[in-house]
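Researcher: Structure for this, please.
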Amino acid sequence: MISLAMAKSFPLLILLILLISAFIMPLVKNNRVVKGISLGTMMMAAVLSVITMIYVVKNGSFVYRIGHWDAPWGIEFYISPMEAAIGVLFTWVAGLILWYSLYSLEKEIPSEKLPFYYLLVNVLIGALLGIVYSNDIFNCFVFVEISTLASCGIVVIKDKKENIKAALKYLILSCLGSGLFLMGIAFLYSITGNLNMTFIYKEVAAAQYVYPNVILISVVLFTIGLGVKSAMFPLHTWLPDAHSSAPSVSSALLSSLVLKGFVILLIKILFRALGFTLVKELPILDLILILGSLGMIMGSVFAILQKEIKRVIAYSSVAQVGYIFFGIGLASELGVAVALYHVFGHAVTKAMLFLTVGAMIETTGKKKIEDFKGIGKEMPITLGLFTLGALSMVGIPILPGFVSKWNLALASISAGKPILVAIILISSILNALYYFPVVIHGFFGEENLKDRVYKSKQKPVKEMLPVICLSVAVLFVGLISEPLIQLFSLGLK
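Model: Predicted structure, token format:
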């Protein structure tokens, strides 16, 4: 039987397991052992995150003090249903991606770099979880910086010209975002005297009448700073190069998890540190709504214009992040809860899409969309999994993409903005325009299938099993959408 104190310490234990094990890996000379350490520690973290989730569902949110000092002087973790659920998402998706990497990563990067790569992945996931769990805004900043450096590392690891260029672009823009975020912290601290989000919430209620402009400036800085890191349109310019040039495992991690960590932090600052009542009065939410809407449309337009399949999926991430900011911009409990649900749905779906595309590129050696005509005959399982992800992104009923779009439409109507439903419909049509041609030309057409040998390029089932697990997760997230959205609504309170 797990004691109360032990269960509350699991979030810290997860971080310690990931971060301490990371720096053991370069000391190990056997790559198989390194892979085992990385996957094993990630699955340990995943199991602990599930136990934490069960505890929170049964007993409610809790605060875990780190060290001997109480807040606001000491550091603490705040674990609500939102943090617990996101912890489960990050650890399990990362675990499945690492499982897939066991069979594919050595084909993309030199074997001598594998220990360093897995070090970066463990540090990255640990830092992202630190962002999610921490209730101290400055500690979140520290974890943001760690995750940014680790993210650049998993992009540049291939050591090719395009990777170095993409990583430098990402690093420069991320430094700009970090600077703006730090300035936002400074402004908020100057009027509240606190870095702990719980105490900021208590102090900002009085400060809003004395320093309204300072609060607005800090929120703008937070939004732009984290908007750069989470690829909010039009601050997304680093993303297509980084995602398309990185190893497929890195692309899956970046799109499914890294972007989401910064979105979660923005949600915590806006709706927990500042509160719904205050934030609704700020004009910044209208800007977030507009930029989210533009991202939904323009991300898809740019995706349609691409010729390389990884760049298509990268620009698709810009569109999907637009849906998340769209929900945040509605500033209603339903809108933000659906935005969090879309974080969940998009994470499992986009991880699956990048891994299936990575498998197709690995076996064919080609990258352009036109080169994948007839691939459905040669790799039926792989393209079938890609099709499931594509159907979710387009918004076919039962799947997570449809659930998100349906509930965002309901939230728009509830907010008195029914015109926004048209934007959701247009974006769905645009999604279909770049996903369906890949599926149709891959499975159908005599000219596409001619001279193709059935299953000639299909990877073994054991290598595709992690992706199959992700496909099950996609269906599961769609089927349990209502409980998840209700859980996120509780996590915002």
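Researcher: Any notable elements?
Model: The chain is about 75% helix and 0% strand. The chain has a mean pLDDT of 86.
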